[in-house]
Every structure is written in structure tokens, then in C-alpha cells.
Design brief:
The complex is a heterodimer.
Chain A lengths: L21 H5 L4 H29 L10 H20 L2 H14 L8 H23 L13 H5 L4 H28 L12 H33 L12 H35 L6 H14 L15 H29 L8 H24 L1 H7 L3 H31 L5 H28 L13 H31 L50
Chain B lengths: L15 H32 L16 H30 L6 E8 L2 E6 L4 E3 L1 E5 L3 E8 L4 E5 L4 E5 L5 E6 L4 E7 L11 E7 L1 H9 L6 H11 L3 H4 L17 E3 L5 E3 L2 H9 L22 H13 L7 H6 L17
Parallel strand pairs in B: 1-5, 4-10
Antiparallel strand pairs in B: 1-2, 2-3, 5-8, 6-7, 6-9, 9-10, 11-12
The chains are: A mainly alpha, B alpha+beta.
Chain lengths: ~550, ~325
Amino acid sequence: MTTDSAEPKYPEHTYLNDGYSLKSWLLTKDHKRIGILYLISITFFFALGGLFALLIRLELLTPQGDLMQSDTYNKMFTMHGIVMIFFFLVPSIPAVFGNFLVPIMIGARDLAFPRLNLASWYMYMAGAVFALYAIVSGGVDTGWTFYTPYSTAHADSHVISTAVGILIMGFSSIFTGLNFIVTIHRMRAPGMTWFRLPLFIWAHYATSLIMILGTPVLGITIALVGVERALGLGIFDPANGGDPLLFQHLFWFYSHPAVYIMILPAMGVISEVITCFARKVIFGYGFIATSSMLIAILGFFVWGHHMYVSSQSEYAGLIFSALSFLVAIPSAIKVFNWTATLYKGSITFEAPMLYVFGFIGVFTIGGLTGLFLAALGMDRHVHDTYFVVAHFHYIMVGGALMAYLAAMHFWWPKMTGKRYPEGLAMVGAIAVFVGFNMTFFPQFILGYLGMPRHYHEYVPEFQFLHIMSTAGASVLGVGYLIPGVCFLWSLIHGRNAGPNPWEAKGLEWTIPSPPPTHNFEEIPVVTEEPYQYTSEASSVRHS
Amino acid sequence: MQGGLKFFPDQASTMAGPVDAFFFYLVGVSVFFTVLIFTLVAVFAVKYRRRPGNEQGAHIEGSKLLEITWTVIPLGLVAIMFFWGAKLYYDQERAPANALDVLVTGKKWMWKFQHSNGRREINTLHIPARTPIKLTMGSEDVIHNVFVPAFRVKQDVVPGRLTTVWFEATKTGSFHLFCNQYCGKDHSRMVGKVIVMEPNEFQAWLAGDTGLPPVASGELLFNQLACNSCHMGEGMLRGPSLAGLHGSRVALLGGGSVIADDDYIRESIVNPAAKIVDGYQPIMPTFKGLVTEEQLMHLVAYVKSLEAPSGAKAGAAETTSGATLAVDAATTAGQ
């Protein structure tokens, strides 16, 4: 496919050349332009969060604190977490690819509420301004979890401005979720029945549910932290009659489901890409769609597994443990179905597919190590150690970010109309996979050895594994630069992509690349199931 | 026990073996599925790569049999994990009755320990081998966490309540103790050592340099704060008698009841109005701010030491107002 001889023509009218003024971007109601605005914004925050990560890994090269003071280090990991979670991972796939693709994939000309969509980006940016203010004016040191009473009564850093930033950012999440749900319900093209929806859409539907049900609780919690800190009301601080565990319950009620906000859209991406590069219909469509919904629902009932050693009731611990094991099953089902999708495929290995292979590998490890943490008696040892750090980086960096990069490579030609250099991008995918595992696998061992999180200094026997991890991080850092180079190169030198460079199925590939402002000249009529890469004639139906 | 390159933690408590056995089961299951998935992906990727004669995938929409298989088998495996993990947790939560008590106070950024004979230490905890030890822990400021990797135990130390954790060391030596809950600037320096000694050496160590034992300090405080004026004596007291209180069930005003554990006794001192004993008036003032976290533990230790009048013990343990603390009285305290 990369060797097409005749270069396709670049379309005359696209969403990109529909006005070049700043105003045409900042006041746009086009879901695609808003997706691009988000892409630029979150890329900035990814770079910022990555810079913090780099400084953290450098400090941890030696057991002593030598690069920075301990309170500076504490701010580094706090801001790394806050920036990466709230300003990169939560918006990443939904706000960029969801915005860009949800309407197109269901055959609509825009989201249901284009103004609300633009407002969501402004809310994100307003939140970002507060967070950046907090960072520039000295930072915040509470950890991204804002545990009380440290955050409300002891921390001497910019807690309130950060909290306000997250509170405002939360509205962008709620607006986006609301918009997707209404759009998916009301704006599907004729013939686009629920079970003809691409799995990317199912994943975003499930994600949106979490966004609108969970984010308000985060907002309330973070507002209470601000109120307690500013006014001294005794809500969470026992010195004033509050309950610190109440904070943890409220915080994790959002923040555990938030993990699924980050990973469900990633799973949606995997289903789209793997079918295209295996040229096969997805294996177990119904099971994958249902498992997304199950994850969204069950994900709301497992928050207490963050609190096994908090002095929460042990009976509560038992229930949360059982439910946490249950929520693992739908994720396992997805992995099995993706693997089965490869069976008897016709597989090629372009960069998006390499990221998918990487995703399956690291997500499998990340998911399985989650079982250690769901198990009560095991979590007592590994809780809040580097084992946990490794586990959630396998899910969020390995999983969500690799899927994000798969999506970037897969839909980049659609978004820009340009091809990126395939060979270099493949090298990038391999570097990311290798660097990622080198960085985070040693941390599982560190965690079981007993290395606690959030340690600026550590005992010398942990140093070897920290050096391994930092070495891996440098490979990973280079790995992340490669896609950046590819994409910038493609904007200048890239060949025109044509409407469907991957010969993929799905409505987004039936329109020009880049798409025109209103997506479809005529609203399409959908007549077939998704992922029909093979004709029924060659069908080998099991079951 | 320390230093050198290592990839697996010391096993130095009775809990280490069982936790590690469970760990290896979890690792086994994880390795099996990781290898299975990696192998399948690799084999399919090679075998079904696109090449002349294989331009299109086969049309396979799914298989109910496979879906059921790969739902049920993992369900069975995680059910084992759940019960195994729960069993370990149950054991970790229940200290043997004969455990030696040690009081622990966490504050930014140090650990204070006190043995039952009064001997105190900071950031280092001496304990005898082959003896169950129960830590009763309070925090003076933010949430801390006691973590001894070689023992596989960990428990948050939460301000506003008392938490406990127990272990029985099997090896002598020095082992790391880490604060495992982020607590601010010098969190990573809130580390200490657990020194496990032979029991006879420990006894010799313990005998040196003792202070007032917690129960004795508690009694002193109890009298200084005039707790005795309402909670001690004959006949109808303004406050419920505390003899035999610890571990008994207390009926509360307005219905309901509570087991009088350490945390309940502590709460009744700092927040007496939270749970009023049935039959008494909510007249006890709070002692919050008047006693330190450590003194609170001493008071609790003293109240625990008060035994029910002989002969009445079995009965008292189940009576309501007879065996209770909290609430009321002590109006003279501190005034």
C-alpha cells in the first residue's frame, strides 16, 4: 500500500483550508478543527509531563538526592501525575480522535452540540491556565491524589489553583461525554444500527458514561479540598473533626473509573486498527462491545481496592476485592478476541499495527499484574510500591499511550491528507515498545523488593534496578521523538494520502482526506456490518 | 540482610512464606497467559502474514464456545486468587492474643516506638524473634504508613484513629522500615530499622533504660485529668465504669451498639459526643488538644488494663452501661 505509484490528488475543499484566520480556528464549531485544537494542546502537556518524568528518572539514578531538593522532587512527581492524567491521558483519545471521528464514523456532519464542543476545549484551556499558573508560580506537592489531611492542612504549595484547574478541566470532560452520548443516540446515519457501530464508538459511548457520571464527583471532592484548605472547614482533616478516609472514598470513586476513561477509548482504537491490518472482521463483536459497557459499569464499584491498607473495614475490602477480580474478566475477553482476530488473517506490519502488537503485549502484562493488586493479602505487600507504579504505567503508558500512537499513525493521513514515512515510524514503534519495557519492567521487581513510591532518596540496594529503568526511559524518550519527526516531516514532504490509504473499512475512509468541512456531501446509508474486510462468500462461520 | 544486589526480598516473618507462595501462584498464572498471548500473536503474525495467496483474511465472526471458555477459565482462576488473597488478609488482620504490644506514633518525619515496659526508641524498633508483635499506631499529623518489606506487612497510620498491624519475625537481623504513604517534604527520610533479636537478648535490651510503662503513664494521666472522678468509684457514676470495658459490646443511646476496641476508646476521649453510652448524659468534655497522640495511646492502654471486678467478668462483658466508657462526666477535667 505504501508503494502506490500514482499519487492521489489533494482535495480542493477541506476542513483545513476552510479559513486560515486565527478566528476561524478559535471560534470554529467544526468537530474536526476542535479535535486538532485538542491535539495541539495535549501534545504540549505531554511534552511538559514528559519533561517532569525525565527529571524524576534522572534524580533516581542515584540513591542520594543530588539533582534537586526533596520538596522539588515531590513537586516533580505531583506535576508529572497531574499533567499526564488530567491534561493528557483523560482527554487524549476521546478529545482528539473521538471529536474527529465519532461524527464521521456514524455518518453525521458534526456532533450534536458543536458550540458545547468548542466550550469544552475552552474549559480545558481555562483549567490548563490555572494548572500552569500553579506550576510556574512554584508548583504543587501533594501527589496527584491530593490525599488529606496533607493537601488541606499541611502542604505549603499551590494546591488551590491546581484544584481549580482540575475542577474546570472536569467540565470539558463532562461536555465531551454528554456530546458523544447524545450524538451516538441521535445522529447515526440511516442503517447505522447499534450493532453496526464500529467498536471505537462503543468504547467512546462507555467512556462518555463514566465521564458524565464520575467527573462531577471529582469536581465535588476537589472543591471540598479547596474549601477545607481555604476556610478550615472540617471535612477531611481529623484535627477539625473530618475524616481522611472519606476523601479517599470520594477521590477513588472518580479516579478508579478514570483509569477506564483512559483505557476504554484505547481499546476502541485497537479494534479498528487490528481488523484493518489483519483484513478480517473482528472476532466476537458483541462480546467486545458488551465488555466495554461492563467495564464502564463495574468500574464504578471497585474504588475501595485502593484502600485495603487504609484501615477501611475488612469486609468492605472483601467486596471490593471480589468486584475488582470481576472487572478483570471483560478486559481479558477483549485481549482473547483481538488475538483470535489475527487467526487466519492477512496480516501486514505498518506502524499502527506494530503499536497494536505492542499494546496487546503490555496491556496483557499490565492487566495481569492488576490481579496482584486486587488480591487482598498480596496488595498489603505491594500497595504503594513501585509494583503499583509499574502496573499503572503498563496500563496507561503502555496501554493508553501506545493505542494513542496507533491512532495517530492510523488516522494521521485522514486528518492531514498526508502520508508519514513508514519505515521510520516502524522504527519508532519498536523503540517505544523496547524502551517502555526497559523502563517499567524493572519497577515490578523494585516494588516487590519493597521500594516505596514517592521516594526522593532510597536505600542503595535498589540502585541497579533504578539505573536500568532510567536507561530504558532514555530509549523510550527517543522513541517518542520519532513519531513527532515523522508527522512534522509528513506535513512538509508527505505524499498525498488519498481517501483510503489503508484500504480500510468504516465511513471515515469513504470521504476525502482531509475531509471537507461538512464531512459527507450526502448522508450515507449504511447497509453492512462493520469490518467487512472479507466477503461473506469466503465465510467460515464458527459457532 | 541489607546491601548488595538483589532481586527478591528477604523472608523474615511468618507471613513472608505464605505471601510469597501466593505471589508465585499469581506469577505462574501471569506468565502462562503472557506466554500464551505472545505466542499466539507471534505465530499468527508469521503464519498469516500477507503474501501471495493470502491477500484476504478468512471470515470468522466469532465462536460462542471459545468466548465461554475464555470467560469461565479466567473466572475460575481469579476466584482462587480472591479466596487465597482473602485468607491471607484475614490472617494479617488478626493478631494472636499473646502478641507483644508496641505503641507507634508517626509524625513528620519520624517514628516513635514505645514498648510495654516504657522503653522508647526513635526510628529503630527492637523486637524479639519468634514472638508475635502487635503495633498500635497513631499519627500526629498526616497519614503515614508502616511498611516492613521483609515481613510483607504494611498498614496506614491515620490521624484521628488507631490502626494496628502484627507480625512475627523469624530471622534475627536488621530490616528496613519505610513510611509508605506520601507525607510531605522528607517522606523518603521517614525510614527506620526493625532489629530482630534473640528473645533473651531482647529481654536484656528491654531492661535497660526504661521509662514509665504506657499503662502506668496512662494511669497517671487518668488521675491528672480527673477521669477518675466520673469513671471510677462505687455506686452510680456520672460516667460509665471502665472496668472490663475493652473488647465488650457497648449499647449506645438511641439504639445500636459498638465493640469497645482501641479506636472506640480513643474516639470517646477526643470526641465523646460521637457515641453516647445508653443510660448516660452527653456531659463529658472533649480532651482533644489536651493530650498528645502518644498520651492518648497511654490512656487507651490503661483503660484496656482495667479488668472487670472478679466474678462479674463474664457478665460484665455483655452488659451495657456497666461496661462502658465515653460520654459524660469529668466536668472538672482540666479546669
